């Protein structure tokens, strides 16, 4: 039986644009907030949640704000991507890799004053299967049974070995809920985290208050305000005027010089796992011909696009696998820019002259890059009609839920989401039995089999042109000079506010 026991470590994680992280310790003491801990902090973000309930509402903006801050999970990722303890202080795995036994912390409480026990973990795991409605719930299907062996010991039995299950428990589906605290998840989240939900000023901000009864290290800041901006200029001006203290994700990289030349600010640039996807609706007849899909990929000059719409910042990847995943492979050479070949492929598939609806969310990067995509595809012989959809509500309903689109542009920031994004039931409507076989073999196999099959899956997606990968978002942050705990890289869903402090 394998045993995993690690002392509590600082959690750092996130996924840029729609989610960030924090990466260094923020408190100077272990038992409470450091001096000045009664201060407040304001962060500028771009995508306001449509709801606070990520069990029934898709989108990364909710876990960005709440996961790890209000809600906690049994396990989490550190900044290197390693799975480490959270509400579970240790765990063991049976030799057949199907039974996990977790030893839980004994001093955690929900913000409604109810103690966290193994019964709450059982309730939370089962509730994913019975009450969640988002596509991510499928990751819990492999669970056969969850039971409380004692108030502080949980046993989870899987139907088969799964490399992905414990990793998914670090994401939103692993969030722990109180059975008495789920009646109003959309407006009143209740968790065990270092912060408590205070208020939501719709269209403007979400306010969190420090949880002074928190079981772990108390955060430095007493109050955190997450302010939402749709306009990148307004976001930048908010930092320049002192309205906010952090731009969590720079939306106009060409404007960075106003901060890099000012000693009042620090600029952080790293990587993320946020793939900016030019998605195809594979249920549409025009996309059922691989030649059309390949033509679109080869009609796009990705370097020129990145230079034009994101000031050259970010990374070209050519697949759904970011460099921070173990099975990353540079696949930019699979579909190199070749306008003549793109035109020939469109003629051969009969798609030349076709009109495609490019339905874009009202997010700065999507709007900017969408114009470049339109121009380049029209040079290849397609007609592109751009529709702007308010984000998140209209885009989530029209594109993500109803698949009423031909193409779209969105950054996918859920970690290791290759299989969930490219499935028959997701908005890409991508049905490829060979891909599903590779993913199943990767999940059930040993470490080598996982690595080999995931690499094959990434390559197959690219060679089959299931969509086009425009670029990988950079982790671009601008903040007050004396703010500490900011992340270099952003690799998970959440922004860990508990690590932030002032020097």
UniProtKB/TrEMBL annotation:
Start and end of every Solute-binding protein family domain? Answer: 82-414
Biological process GO annotation list?
peptide transport
Q: List the molecular function annotations (GO) for this entry.
A: peptide transmembrane transporter activity
For this UniProt record, the keywords arranged alphabetically read as follows: Signal
* The UniProt record lists the keyword Kinase: no
CDD domains reported for this sequence: PBP2_NikA_DppA_OppA_like_6
Quote the cellular component terms of the Gene Ontology held in the record: ATP-binding cassette (ABC) transporter complex; periplasmic space
Signal peptide positions on this chain: 1-24
- Top-rank taxon: Bacteria
Identify this protein by name. ABC transporter substrate-binding protein
Query: What is the species listed in this Swiss-Prot or TrEMBL entry?
Result: Kribbella antibiotica
Please name the taxonomic classification of the source.
Bacteria, Bacillati, Actinomycetota, Actinomycetes, Propionibacteriales
């Amino acid at each position: 039986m394998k045993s995993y026991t690690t002392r509590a470590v600082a959690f750092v994680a996130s996924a840029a644009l729609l989610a960030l992280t924090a990466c260094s310790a923020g408190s100077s003491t272990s038992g409470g907030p450091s001096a000045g801990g009664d201060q407040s902090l304001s962060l500028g973000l771009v995508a306001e949640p449509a709801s606070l309930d990520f069990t029934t509402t898709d989108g990364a903006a909710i876990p960005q704000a709440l996961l790890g801050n209000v809600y906690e999970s049994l396990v989490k990722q550190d900044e290197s991507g390693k799975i480490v303890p959270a509400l579970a202080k240790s765990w063991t795995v049976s030799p057949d890799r199907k039974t996990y036994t977790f030893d839980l912390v004994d001093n955690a409480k929900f913000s409604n004053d109810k103690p966290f026990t193994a019964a709450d973990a059982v309730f939370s795991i089962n509730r994913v299967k019975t009450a969640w409605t988002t596509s991510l719930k499928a990751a819990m299907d492999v669970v056969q049974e969850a039971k409380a062996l004692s108030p502080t010991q949980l046993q989870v039995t899987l139907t088969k070995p799964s490399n992905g299950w414990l990793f998914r428990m670090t994401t939103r589906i692993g969030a722990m809920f109180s059975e008495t605290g789920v009646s109003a998840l959309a407006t009143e989240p209740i968790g065990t985290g270092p912060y408590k939900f205070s208020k939501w000023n719709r269209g403007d901000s979400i306010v969190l208050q420090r949880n002074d009864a928190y079981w772990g290290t108390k955060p430095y800041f007493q109050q955190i305000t997450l302010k939402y901006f749709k306009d990148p200029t307004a976001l930048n001006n908010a930092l320049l005027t002192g309205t906010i203290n952090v731009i969590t994700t720079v939306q106009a990289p060409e404007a960075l010089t106003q901060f890099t030349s000012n000693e009042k600010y620090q600029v952080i640039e790293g990587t993320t796992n946020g793939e900016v996807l030019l998605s195809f609706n594979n249920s549409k007849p025009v996309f059922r011909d691989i030649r059309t899909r390949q033509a679109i990929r080869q009609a796009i000059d990705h370097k020129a696009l990145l230079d034009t719409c994101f000031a050259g910042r970010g990374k070209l990847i050519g697949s759904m696998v970011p460099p921070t995943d173990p099975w990353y492979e540079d696949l930019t050479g699979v579909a190199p820019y070749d306008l003549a070949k793109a035109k020939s492929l469109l003629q051969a598939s009969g798609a030349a002259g076709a009109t495609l609806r490019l339905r874009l969310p009202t997010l700065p990067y999507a709007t900017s890059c969408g114009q470049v995509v339109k121009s380049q595809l029209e040079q290849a012989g397609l007609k592109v009609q751009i529709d702007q959809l308010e984000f998140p509500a209209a885009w989530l309903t029209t594109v993500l839920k109803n698949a009423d689109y031909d193409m779209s542009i969105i950054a996918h920031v859920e970690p290791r989401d290759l299989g969930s994004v490219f499935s028959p039931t997701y908005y890409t409507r991508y049905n490829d039995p060979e891909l599903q076989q590779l993913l199943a073999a990767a999940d059930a196999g040993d470490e080598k089999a996982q690595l080999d099959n995931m690499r094959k899956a990434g390559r197959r997606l690219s060679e089959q042109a299931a969509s086009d990968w425009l670029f990988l978002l950079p982790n671009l942050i601008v903040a007050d000079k004396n703010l500490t705990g900011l992340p270099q890289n952003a690799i998970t869903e959440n922004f860990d506010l508990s690590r932030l402090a002032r020097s």
